[in-house]
Amino acid sequence: MTPLDPNVLEHVSSWLASGDDDLRLARVGLTLTSGCPYQLIGYHAQQCAEKYLKAMLVIYGVDFPYTHNLRRLIDLIPGDAASRDELRGAEVLTPFGTTARYPGAQDPVSREEAVSALDLAEALRSRVRGRLQSDFPVALAEDIEP
What is the count of structural domains for the chain? Predict the structure, then answer.
């Protein structure tokens, strides 16, 4: 295997770190005892998933469009369909990437929906990290604390 360009690794690490920041913020947000903005938990869950997918595309050298549509990003991932299918559950997060930005553009988000969104983002994160570590034995940032 050809060693990865250090600039590519730095770019991938930046995407992963930004996704981890979104995940961390979503986790902290759910600890609010009142007034939790559940739509923003969904937004940050979607952002985590989007950034992890984009990190994956960067490391594989795949150009991607400026989009929040997770299906479009997943479709660009190289490899067999099964490797993409394991990420498809996160596609339901796509609407959170835009509707939380526009008040009144969506129905209120429940705590259960926010928790489900966070679970989906964490599952995608785990799958992407596993694939990157398998395909590219590089040191990724440590897991963030729950």
Answer: 1
Give the residue numbers spanning the domain of 69: 6-135
Token pair 């796509």: residue? 94
DSSP string, 88-141: GGGGGGTTHHHHTTSTTSSPPPPHHHHHHHHHHHHHHHHHHHHHHHHHS--PPP
Q: Which residues of the chain have pLDDT under 70?
A: 1-3, 105, 138-146
Q: What is the pTM of this model?
A: 0.90
CATH number at residue 117: 1.20.120.330
* Residue 54 near residue 128, CB atoms below 8 Å: no
- Side chain identity at 8, as an amino acid letter? V
